[in-house]
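On clarity, I found the account of how folds are encoded harder to follow than it need be. An entry of this sort, consisting of the sequence and the corresponding backbone structure tokens, reads as follows:
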Amino acid sequence: MFMRAIVCQEKLRERYISEVLASVIAPFSEQTKRQIYEWQREGMSTRWMADQLGVTRHKVMLLTKRTSWPSPSNLS
């Protein structure tokens, strides 16, 4: 029963993340926003993310500093 609760909590967390990322309006696709979120969870810098995506650091920072952007530190 304990494992089912953990699995259920993880599914709810993933659904919440997906809904929040979908609601963020940005010049990035849903898949790219998810990738940026995952990189942010792994502790990658905005400069590294920008280099990987081929955009300016400013564009990545505008996205991750929004109040509607989910903070990995709050959802770990």
About this structure: The chain has a mean pLDDT of 89. DSSP finds five helices and no strands in the chain. Helices lie at 2-23, 30-42, 46-53, 57-64, 72-75.
